[in-house]
Amino acid sequence: MPEFIPVLGKNEIQNIVAQIARKISSDYQGQELILIGVLKGAFIFLSDLVRHLSIPVKVDFVGVSSYGSGTTSSGIIRLTRKVEIDLTNKDVLVIEDIVDTGLTLTYIVDYLKTFSPKTVKVCALLDKRERRSQTIKIDYACHVVSEGFLVGYGLDYNEDYRELPEVYHLKF
Ligand code: IMP
Ligand code: MG
């Protein structure tokens, strides 16, 4: 059995989400904001985030798969769900669970830009910098972690542990 080392507790997560939601609500006041959740990892973060916002938004999802199984990215990214809302001239904010190498986010941002949005920015719950290989700006980074493989609050290891309400470092 791997060891589960606590990284973010329930209260800490709620404080982080509330704080980032306040910032987003103020930055996008009066604009037409579309949130694009990255499936599947961002499903819990996104659903908590929208309930803390004080501005109206539209929500859509993109699906990508990059990780085969295990803890290292295959590096090959595949789009498994396309965006459905018209993004032309809209303000788009990508909601991601965790940024590791940055390959997934770079792919998604490039994909979304093909729909001619007004702006595309990025919000990630976890910013893991150890293996970053792409230069990518995370406009709203909630919590920086240096290393390790994290699970819980939407994040999985081989599709397990997404339902855990806290974030843990999985130690093998
Ligand atoms: P990247 O393309 O290397 O930046 O990896 C990003 C994607 O890999 C994220 O959307 C996650 O779904 C997944 N990922 C990266 N690191 C972790 C982790 O520590 N735990 C769970 N999933 C991760
Ligand atoms: Mg993800």
Automatic annotation (TrEMBL):
Its EC number is 2.4.2.8. It is an enzyme of class 2 (transferase). Its cofactor is Mg(2+). Residues 12-157 form the Phosphoribosyltransferase domain. Its main location: cytoplasm. GO terms for cellular component: cytosol. One of its GO terms (molecular function) is hypoxanthine phosphoribosyltransferase activity. Coiled coil: none annotated. Pathway: Purine metabolism; IMP biosynthesis via salvage pathway; IMP from hypoxanthine: step 1/1. It catalyses: IMP + diphosphate = hypoxanthine + 5-phospho-alpha-D-ribose 1-diphosphate; GMP + diphosphate = guanine + 5-phospho-alpha-D-ribose 1-diphosphate. It is found in: Cytoplasm. It comes from the Bacteria. Keywords: Cytoplasm, Glycosyltransferase, Magnesium, Metal-binding, Nucleotide-binding, Purine salvage, Transferase. One of its GO terms (biological process) is hypoxanthine metabolic process. It holds the Pfam family Pribosyltran. Belongs to the purine/pyrimidine phosphoribosyltransferase family. This is Hypoxanthine phosphoribosyltransferase. It comes from Candidatus Desulfatibia profunda. The lineage of its organism: Bacteria, Pseudomonadati, Thermodesulfobacteriota, Desulfobacteria, Desulfobacterales.
